[in-house]
């Protein structure tokens, strides 16, 4: 026995998120913040800024998709299995507006072998803005060293 204690699932999810966040210039550059992380789940938020509004005066769908995709990424990498998106789709339900704080909550639906399915709900307050579904694929490797101690 080496005397090492493995991280709890919650601590491992946080360590994975911290490792990813360190190099995630896209999410950081858009002003996203990690609100909550757990095994198979992640909540991120982002405020709609003037450069994120389209010609209709509403939040550009690409920014909403990016927020959902980032929450998806943090959720599917929370098990310390390096994972990328294989596919993602979004349904826009209501428009986001300038100044809205959008919150994306990602939850694992299933995970088997190298594949996973995650649902992400994007809301502004109590209003659902969009629903995203992502399919993940493990590519091998880890985000934090295995056998990490708590």
UniProtKB/TrEMBL annotation:
<feature type="domain" description="Thioesterase">
    <location>
        <begin position="56"/>
        <end position="128"/>
    </location>
</feature>
<dbReference type="Pfam" id="PF03061">
    <property type="entry name" value="4HBT"/>
</dbReference>
<dbReference type="GO" id="GO:0016289">
    <property type="term" value="F:acyl-CoA hydrolase activity"/>
</dbReference>
<keyword id="KW-0413">Isomerase</keyword>
<dbReference type="InterPro" id="IPR003736">
    <property type="entry name" value="PAAI_dom"/>
</dbReference>
<protein>
    <submittedName>
        <fullName>Phenylacetic acid degradation protein with thioesterase/thiol ester dehydrase-isomerase domain</fullName>
    </submittedName>
</protein>
<dbReference type="InterPro" id="IPR052723">
    <property type="entry name" value="Acyl-CoA_thioesterase_PaaI"/>
</dbReference>
<dbReference type="InterPro" id="IPR011973">
    <property type="entry name" value="PaaD"/>
</dbReference>
<keyword id="KW-0378">Hydrolase</keyword>
<dbReference type="InterPro" id="IPR029069">
    <property type="entry name" value="HotDog_dom_sf"/>
</dbReference>
<dbReference type="GO" id="GO:0016853">
    <property type="term" value="F:isomerase activity"/>
</dbReference>
<dbReference type="InterPro" id="IPR006683">
    <property type="entry name" value="Thioestr_dom"/>
</dbReference>
<comment type="similarity">
    <text>Belongs to the thioesterase PaaI family.</text>
</comment>
């Amino acid at each position: 026995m080496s005397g090492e204690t493995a991280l709890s699932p919650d601590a491992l999810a946080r360590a994975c998120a911290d490792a990813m966040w360190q190099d995630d210039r896209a999410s950081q550059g858009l002003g996203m913040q990690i609100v909550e992380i757990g095994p198979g789940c992640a909540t991120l938020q982002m405020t709609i800024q003037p450069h994120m509004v389209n010609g209709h005066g509403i939040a550009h769908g690409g920014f909403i998709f990016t927020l959902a995709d980032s929450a998806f990424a943090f959720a599917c990498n929370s098990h310390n299995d390096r994972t990328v998106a294989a596919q993602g789709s979004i349904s826009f339900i209501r428009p986001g507006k300038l100044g809205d704080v959008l919150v994306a909550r990602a939850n694992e639906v299933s995970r088997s072998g190298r594949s996973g399915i995650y649902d992400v709900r994007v809301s502004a307050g109590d209003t659902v803005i969009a629903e995203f579904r992502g399919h993940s694929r493990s590519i091998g490797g880890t985000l934090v060293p295995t056998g990490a101690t708590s």
